[in-house]
Amino acid sequence: MTELALVLGSPTAPRCHARREEYFAWVGQVFSGSPASVKSRRYFYNRFVRHWPDLEGWFAEPLLVRLDLHDRDYWQSGKRKGPSHEAGTYLAYLSLVHRLSLVHRLPLDADWLLSRNFDGMFHPQVAAGLGLDLELLDSWVERLLQLGYKKHHARSALTWALARLTLWRGEPDFTTITAEDICAFGDELRRYSARPEAGFIRATHVSNARGQDPLGKLATQFEKNCATRLYVLHVLLFNTEQVSETPIYGLRRQEKWKDQLVPSGTPPAIAATVRRWLELRLQGTDRAESVRHARDAFRYLIRWLTTAHPEITNLDQLTRSHLEDYLIHLHNHRNPRNNQPLSVRSRYTYLSPLAQFFRETSQWQWADVPGRPLLGHSDLPKLPARLPRFIPRNELDRLMEAVEGLEDLYQRTALLLLRWSGARRGEIARLTLDCLDTYPDGYPRLRIPVGKTYTERMIPLHPQAAEALRELIEQAKAADAAARHDQWAGRRVRWVFVWRGQPMGRKYLFEDGLEIACQRAGLVNADGKPTVTAHRFRHTVGTQLAEGGARIQTIMAILGHRSAGMSATYSHISDPVLKEQYERVIANGGRVAGPAAEALLNNEISQDTVDWLKSNFFKTELEFGHCLRLPAEGPCECDLYLRCSKFFTTSEYAPRLRARLVRERQLIQDAIERNWPREIERHEAITRRIRELLTELGEPCDDPGEAHE
Which of 42, 84, 515, 587 has the maximal Cβ count within 10 Å? Predict the structure, then answer.
């Protein structure tokens, strides 16, 4: 605990007035050039002491009395007067100067500090008398200008925050302010703004026009504005390396979810086991996001157990029957936000960590666990395997034209990088100042930071994106924002996408910019929402690489995939053999025959069949045609596929059909010679069916070449 905290919390440090001679001497020195100011401040001192000879009595008064507002309506105009309000200089003296000893300085309460102005503190003579370093203040304003703030905004934010923090702490030295001080005063601000009289107090400060606003609105706006000023101070102190804690807008304290791995009220035995397992995962190689999902899965299970089975206080009491009930609960439960059943993905997210927990703890022979896997692979919902959705060429051209016209350089550059690199949004947002260089031939090269796959990679970058990125890098170097710890890289780095000393949000960089571009390009749905998402740029790059004949290894290297299967997905989208066969068979109007032909020609194929055929058409090929039977329908139980309802053929197979017809004639002759009547009947049936198919295709039954000869 600091010396200041000891004084603030010590009941043995009474608050008392300064001696008249001491204060009068200080006033005479500070206001030596203005006899009227000296006289008035001495008068205000005498009046204040007469009203409250015991300083503790002043602190005990209601806030409105201490502000001289107890007998005044908020709409009354004119300068505020009164024994308390006009003693502001004396109270500032008590807080920062009194006997120049920390023991005798008087930290002031936040409610009073937030209720009045202190602009006069930074007058050169007054600041010198209070021990405030104006040269340091000026240098801090310049630092904020370097980070991108406007001069007026920078100075007004700093003077507001510094005045109140110094008086609240009773310490004039700006360099002793900590991040904890800022966050603690932010808590005081939120508490103050919730006071019933906060709106009334604000109404006495604002103009007559704004004074007509609802009092609650005035208090809310005041809280927002003041939180912004404190945030600016936090940004400054972080970028001058006075504090190491990263600033968060709105003065929200960093969410310490890792300290809340289990919900409050969890039975101790369950809490200890779950916390132990989650902490092991945090200490391992699991991503924090994955562990957080696992934590949420347990929180959901524990809440359900509390309601459905309150008798369970230890996980070793769980049985398969309990988990089956839980599976039914997840299947039937509706999301309270939209009254819709939980999605397959949500149910999978809730169950997968539990299955892993039961499996691992049984292998490790932990106590206080079921000791056997209560969930198996078959209990997890089957996730649909969807193909990546790339941006069609005509939409891409319109969209990129709109992107190039974006006014904001940060948004424009971020979207250009999405388009030309295929990198993930998080990777682009974390690009470092040394991310761009060139190959030996001068072509731009981009260094993608360590991310989801825990690997750094180098990829070529289109000159258009490189040019925009180079401009941002120069701006970031000029701003010289402080390095930040990158949790992926495990070290301090300096990022490119930083504005006013703070990393830029992904929503602003990608979603907001993309929404503007989609609106301009006309790529919106009936509700006016963009039809293109930022992640589709990544799929577009992968698809274009596959269409251009890039090897799987190349796609993996550029997109940062860990397995060939992930990159092979794009090859399935753009399989040239599939495209060639589709065009030859269907798109070019080729003749089609067979039991499935009518459904195919009349567009009566189900959407599931169409979706499957788009990436699996090559799997349908048989000796004489194709079968439209899906894998989900099971194996074909019909050996006579020529008459199967799932079979169709095309003119492409006519030569094979004629060759088979010749072969069947030979087999008929052989069966006749061997006196096998059933074989004769079978081959004659096949012969008739082949003739029917050739007739439907409009093809001759005999080889045209042989007939011509």
Answer: 84
Report the predicted TM-score, pTM, of the whole model to 2 decimal places.
0.70
> To which H or E segment does residue 340 belong?
strand 340-341
Q: 155 and 13: one domain?
A: yes
- Alpha-carbon torsion 40, 44, 45, 46, what sign? positive
Query: How confident is the model over 560-587, as pLDDT tens digits?
Result: 887 777 777 776 666 565 555 555 555 5
Same domain, 666 and 598: yes
pLDDT in tens, 409-437: 999 999 999 999 999 999 999 999 999 99
Instruction: For the beta carbon of residue 297, count every other beta carbon within 10 angstroms.
Output: 19
Q: How far apart are CA 78 and CA 367, in angstroms?
A: 74
Residue 577: inside a domain? no
Indicate if 401 and 505 belong to the same structural domain: yes
**583 within some domain:** no
Over range 481-505, report the average pLDDT: 88
Query: Of 222, 251, 280, which residue sits at a domain end?
Result: 251
Provide the residue range defining the domain that includes 472. 393-571
Q: How far apart are CA 498 and CA 512, in angstroms?
A: 17
Residue 591 dihedral angles phi and psi, to the nearest 5°? -70, 145
Assigned domain for 384 exists: no
Mean pLDDT of the chain: 84
Same domain? For 12 and 139 the reply is yes
Half-sphere exposure of residue 280: CA atoms within 13 angstroms, side-chain side: 10
Q: Which residues are CB-contacts of 492 (< 8 A; sequence separation ≥ 6)?
A: 483, 484, 485, 486
Residue with tokens 């499935």: 596
> In sequence order, what are the beta bridge partners of 457?
448
* Contacts with 533 (C-beta within 8 Å, 6 or more apart), sequence order: 514
Is residue 578 situated within a structural domain?
no
For residues 78 and 213, membership in a common domain is answered with: yes
CA distances, 378 to each of 369, 374, 577 (Å): 21, 11, 35
Of the ranges 330-344, 489-503, 620-634, which one carries the lowest mean pLDDT score?
620-634
* Model confidence pLDDT, tens digit, residues 261-279: 888 889 999 999 999 999 9
